[in-house]
Design a protein that fits this description.
globular; Dihydrodipicolinate Reductase, domain 2; nine-stranded mixed sheet
């Protein structure tokens, strides 16, 4: 645990989050003030033979890749583009792909002017901005596809799940593997009793991250720089506390910072642990213990982390621990007979760049009383290990159905009423909340005990406040009211 903690007193005195954070539950969820008084539109109805009118919000880098995938389905028409950095180099490809389509920098203006023409939105913006965009869309009866993680804080996820029920819209979180081979295989193997009595899971992502090499002894946020001509910085910030613009917040760098992103856990957890979480009915943990944090500080994510999530017994299933490893020097041991660590071919490009192979590639090991499994990330299939045991099981494995649609088509077909989404907020929300709890333990550097019934952290008032995060900036409170 060396190189792990800063004092709680120092953290409380210096972090920007604490001012008024304890007031958030009464400030935000009570009543229907602000946007809650606006007309609530019924869910948009799209005929089975019509195309879905989609607005793309966030069209650079990862957003560009998702926009192309939506277009490939042939199931939608893009009716609007929105990006806080519209006209910048990284947005120009998608702008050129949809000439003549209305363009916006502020999503609020987009909805004010075009809500009646939009059936669904694709949201691929920084983690901290997912919540207000999704909430605004749902109030207008607009169906929502949002990249993972669902939101940045535990209670933002909670409110989005409540909004999904209240507004009755179709939702999908973009953990694309939930529509690929592993989703159907895991379900078939679980239903057939091949995967049962699981007591431990190891998950790992040990590739380089954007903040590796930064100085963890940082004593202040980066100094302000000139805001690029194309960038609407105030809208980029959304409800977050005021920060002067710096290039290390923008173009994917937001993922490094507790204020804006969810680090490697929020980035990769949903691609590695989604089927484990859903089909083993894990729900929320009772404890998260950061047993190793290298380079811990209050501004950005550790260089390496080991987190132990404890889940209780569920019906006939035993208690289960998930141990998460990230960092270049924090590679977990693998069981005998593991074999080769393949690089998952399902991992998509981001702005054309592929992930580089590592000593142990992103993935997981699943330990049950009778069998051990290994798997990668996204949609890669599980294997039984060692090979001799796999051969013994060959004749006992059930047939696995093929996916009827990829993740993007699944969403659009669900908007048309022809399918049901496989990663709606009701499924993706609790999964994202697990990662939010992990982030709280990383940020505070301390073990947290969690009450699954009250959804409160019981041993650490500071950590419990971080379930909400900061009081929103003035003018953004309305987005947090149902």
């Amino acid at each position: 645990m060396a190189d792990k903690k800063i004092s709680r007193r120092s953290f409380l005195q210096s972090t920007a989050l604490i001012g008024g954070a304890a007031m958030i539950p009464s400030l935000l969820m009570g009543g229907n003030a602000g946007a809650g008084n606006k007309r609530v539109a019924p869910p948009k109805v799209v005929g089975a033979n019509e195309k879905v009118g989609v607005a793309l919000i966030g069209i650079g880098n990862r957003g560009a890749e998702v926009a192309k995938e939506f277009r490939k389905t042939g199931l939608c028409d893009v009716v609007a583009l929105c990006d806080v950095d519209m006209g910048a180099k990284h947005t120009q490809e998608i702008e050129a792909m949809f000439p003549g389509v209305p363009k916006y920098r502020d999503f609020r203006k987009l909805f004010d002017e075009m809500a009646g023409r939009i059936d669904a939105v694709m949201v691929a913006t920084p983690d901290h901005s997912h919540f207000p965009i999704c909430m605004t869309a749902m109030r207008e009866g607009i169906h929502v596809y949002v990249e993972k993680p669902l939101a940045r804080t535990f209670y933002e996820c909670e409110l989005l799940m409540q909004a999904e029920k209240k507004y009755g819209v179709v939702t999908q979180m973009g953990n694309q593997g939930h529509s690929e081979a592993n989703y159907f295989q895991f379900k078939a193997w679980k239903d057939a009793g091949i995967i049962k009595d699981v007591t431990a899971v190891t998950a790992h992502m040990n590739n380089p991250r954007r903040w590796h090499g930064w100085d963890p002894k940082m004593t202040a946020y980066p100094q302000g720089e000139s805001i690029p001509r194309t960038l609407d910085w105030e809208t980029w910030l959304c409800a977050a506390h005021e920060h002067a613009y710096n290039h290390d917040y923008h173009k994917g760098q937001w993922r490094c910072w507790y204020d804006f992103g969810m680090g490697v856990l929020g980035d990769w957890g949903a691609h590695i642990l989604d089927t484990v979480h859903e089909f083993l009915d894990l729900g929320l943990p009772t404890e998260v213990n950061p047993t190793y944090l290298k380079g811990h500080n209050r501004f950005f994510y550790p260089m390496s982390s080991t987190l132990v999530f404890r889940f209780p017994e569920r019906r006939e299933m035993p208690a289960l621990d998930i141990t998460w490893y990230d960092g270049l020097d924090n590679i977990p041991a693998v069981p005998d007979g593991y074999g080769v660590s393949e690089l998952d071919p399902n991992i998509p490009t981001v702005a054309g760049g592929k992930i580089q192979p590592a000593k142990l590639n992103p993935g997981k090991e699943i330990y049950s009383e009778t069998l051990t499994f290994k798997g990668g990330s996204h949609g890669s299939k599980l294997s039984i290990i060692p090979g001799e045991r796999a051969k013994e099981m060959e004749g006992k494995l059930p047939e696995v159905p093929k996916s009827p649609s990829n993740h993007y088509a699944n969403f659009l077909l669900s908007v048309m009423g022809r399918e049901r989404t496989r990663s709606p907020f009701s499924v993706a929300g609790p999964l994202s909340q697990v990662f939010c709890l992990g982030v709280v333990s990383q940020w505070t550097g301390e073990k947290i005990l969690f009450d699954r019934q009250t959804k409160q952290i019981t041993n650490n008032p500071l950590a419990n406040q971080l379930l909400w995060g900061a009081v929103p900036r003035r003018g953004w409170e309305e987005f947090y009211k149902l």
